[in-house]
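User: two proteins, same treatment. go.

Assistant:
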Amino acid sequence: MGYLCKVQPLRFSLVIPAYNEAALLPRLLESVETARRAYVKGRDTIEVIVADNSSTDATARIAADHGCLVATVEKRVIGAARNGGAAIAQGEIICFVDADARVHPQTFNEIERALETGRVIGGATGVKLERWSLGLLCTFAAMVPIVVLMRMDTGVVFCLRDDFKAVQGYSETRLFAEDVEFLFKLRALGRPRRQRLARVTTAKAIASVRKFDKYGEWHYFTQIARLVGLMIRSPEGATEFVRRYWYNDRDQ
């Protein structure tokens, strides 16, 4: 007599958009594995998808070697990479995290707890920085009032997969701030249901400060001021700036 093996349905899909992330992707995947093993419903109810955004390094191979699904996304726009990974996701809950971050060991348990209340449409975990300096502290402090007032955050962003589809995912025309727009769309979807965005700060991710390592501890204030000026005076110049700062700084 044969035995039927009960296969658990996938609960989570974690999508990692990645462009030339061979250097930092392994440490993220190690932190994800720790969080998967800590998840109360079982490690194998979580799938990990790396959305390889036309990398020229070993990003895709590293992802495959770690047992991740790899979604190849050619359009070099962050929203397209996120959507490309989400397109093959099978989990009931879909999450997104940057490839240079690290996740908290209780990430999946804490997101589960937030969504189980029925009062949450989605949200984010928030972050803490991997190191501190005076410049980083001032930059972080400048962001806190915006996060509190908007009741939005960064880190591991999450929602139900059905709700991701309902808001049609991320914008593929925006070169940046697509994550903010996405959360606004989720908030609007949840409002008639009396659901809100949540900040799951009990499981903050660790954010990379590599931009500060490369451009300087105080660069955020000068660069953002420059970007705002370019957006007013020269949309083409602003696009070139964004491409250079966010998209092409790891070209090989």
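Protein 2:
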Amino acid sequence: MSRSTSGRLQTVFDQLRINNKKALVPYVTAGYPNLEILPDILHALVKGGADAIEIGVPFSDPMADGPVIQKASEHALAGGTTLIKIFAQLKIFRASSPNVPIILMSYLNPIERMGLDVFATYMKDVDLDGVLVVDLPPEESDSLRNQLPNTVSVIHLAAPTTSVKRLERIINSSSGYLYYVSIRGVTGAASANVQDLSAEIDRMQPLLKGLPVLIGFGIKTPQQAVETARICNGVIIGSALIEHITHLTSTSDSLAEGVKNWMHSFRKIMDETF
């Protein structure tokens, strides 16, 4: 079961396509370096040129995440970050940024602990645009999907190891966009090989039926973002941003200003290229 992309995500992808641009989507771990600063970080990312933002829900056993995001998650959990508190901060952000697509990226455990119905109520109340549950396969996603408003996209992951048959099932269960994992391994572990990726993206084209593809994992520099974006609809940048936030917290520089400038360095080269 799938649903069509709608709302803010559809608007963003439509506008990017009209302008021949590529999506720039940063990922941040909620609660790192602290939860109260999350709205400021999100505003800074938008000012720097982000088209949408993925918000990571910290979890104690983040099996798909590399050491950078693992450490950020541990820090956030130690600081008392919970899913309910994340929703509260996102509601603050949404009140002053009504047009920015926000996607929640989580493992299943925090959602199940809250309860699917309660989670769905919060997603609607905060007016979020999508959810990606890392360890929820498409075959088991209907219970969550059926609880969510139709405006909330359910996003799935695919990887170079995904078979064509499996890929078709994932795409048919996806909306919003397909998150394509560029490397074999965890986040931040290596850099993507664009030549290999290009062949993989070509392989899946007949199955996509217009579903945008964003590539993440292993994109660390503006130049890598540009080279990767050439073969898809946009890029997702996580570990490199978390590393930059870590660097900023160790200096006297403004965190928000530093995040904005860092994001702009990616936006600038992408806009100059496409």
